[in-house]
What we know:
Helix content is 32%, strand content 20%. The protein is of the alpha/beta class. The protein folds into 3 domains: 9-62 and 222-308 and 412-463, FAD/NAD(P)-binding domain (3-Layer(bba) Sandwich), CATH 3.50.50.60; 110-211, Polyamine Oxidase, Chain A, domain 2; 313-402, Polyamine Oxidase, Chain A, domain 2 (Alpha-Beta Complex). It is globular. Bound molecules: flavin-adenine dinucleotide.
Amino acid sequence: MQNLGEPHAGASQFTDIGTTLPPQHFDAIIIGAGLGGLLSAAHLLQRGLRVAIVERLPHSGGRFTAKNFHGVQVSTGAVHMVPFGSSGVLAHMLHRLHIPHHFFDADVFGSFHVHGKQFRARGLLSVYKFLGAHQFFWLVYIGYLIFLRPLPPYEQQLPFSLWLERHIDVKRNPQLVAFFERIARFALSLDLPQVSTAEVARITKHMLRFGAPAIVQGGCGKLTNELESHVCAQGGKLLLSHEVLRILSHDGAVTGVRLRNKADNEEFELHAPLVVSDVGPRATVALLQNRTVTQSNVLKQQVDHADIHEAVGLKVHILSDISLIPHRGIMYCLDTQRIAGMVQPTNSDPSLAPPGKHLLISHQVIQSNNIEEERALALADLHLLFGEAFDKHCRVLTMGMYRGEWPVNRIVQGEDRLPQTPLRGLYQVGDAVKPSGYLMVEGVAQSVNLFLELLETLDHTSQQSNTDIQPRHYVMPAPSRLNALRWLWKAPGNAGKR
Length: 498
Ligand SMILES: Cc1cc2nc3c(=O)[nH]c(=O)nc-3n(C[C@H](O)[C@H](O)[C@H](O)COP(=O)(O)OP(=O)(O)OC[C@H]3O[C@@H](n4cnc5c(N)ncnc54)[C@H](O)[C@@H]3O)c2cc1C
């Protein structure tokens, strides 16, 4: 894991250019009201701090919210799905904060579209149906190598594609390779050569130990609204349509932010000894240098951060008259050119689409700069998957690219940054700070846990002479490895209980 670079020399000044409003003082300022920002704000408010949250968009939630489009909950990022479901890190955090929510855990391990049809696998053993005896044997062997023996150090950093080549005959196991490839593309938006064997091992262990993925009741927009209401009810000051222009500092410590009200272009300052950035390392460094990162300059790679690799993807929202996926889990697509997986979240919560309609969401990794071709391949895959039913019953609502400043992950899984920065009082949370093995919003929630644990340790160190109380632990460890056994026959989950 790497840390932020040294702040630019210009960052350590305390300027007041053209300020017409008096500076306002808080205990903590959060930059960005994405899931990471809102969760951090809720925890800091729980500790009794005065908190301001600054969001440049007119709404909170970032890549984890949705807009109502003709009665359909069209998400700004996430496919309304939480990777570790009702037993995961996010679920625990929401319970801890008393945020109302319900997650519908998947009722299957998944289904697999292969050989032109869909095979439903209730548990892991059911993948035998489409793998056959030969490839299933090699899957069990891989399971043994990953789970039942320590991964030798020289294997840990190998790209997973290379590791597979060394242990199985990839030519004779095409569906088995596709099985791993499509899960990595759907869950991480990465290809197998981009992810290390150690990371695959950790993620797989966590996925199996925590539980089934889940669809959020009401969609990710509902959850974000609950969080936003909670933060405001606890006295948090939420400044929507306000953009942070600069992080202010003095003598190596953060002092606040300079921001612009987008409604009237007014600039002013907020001051606090603690600033939490939810905007990712690239934008955080830019704010220290009084620069703004735009979508176009990330796409043109004109920034001096060649070391930052984001995960990119293309997502399609489809409205259908008929149900095309018969379960609450993920359909992995092994015989497609691009689409890695799909979900039909209305199987869990029909209110995500108008009555009688079904919402389907597909996801794929963008594999070239030819965007038109990527879209055309997505459509070709949808025809391959559903045949005539697609033309007859389905309507494509949106087809969105996720890259640049709005990627699937700001830092690819396994290369994440630390929450602390060289500037005292400045911390990072969000999907660029996910600890190893914790993916997507589980990683966002765990990044907030890391940050809280750091604060707790700092508080404890400064008060050590007065108290024997140990700092509280927030970071959630993976449950027992025996939990993984539950997956063999049937996906573990809450079976939609309310
Ligand atoms: C296509 C796609 C599918 C996904 N699917 C899933 C899924 O099914 N399940 C899952 O768990 N995860 C999924 N994810 C990932 C998940 O959406 C993200 O991990 C999560 O939403 C990131 O939250 P965050 O708080 O780290 O960042 P963000 O949501 O990006 O929040 C950052 C916020 O900061 C604001 N901001 C930026 N700059 C400034 C500034 N200068 N001043 C003020 N505000 C600023 C932004 O507007 C934004 O609201 C998906 C992502 C994408 C794109």
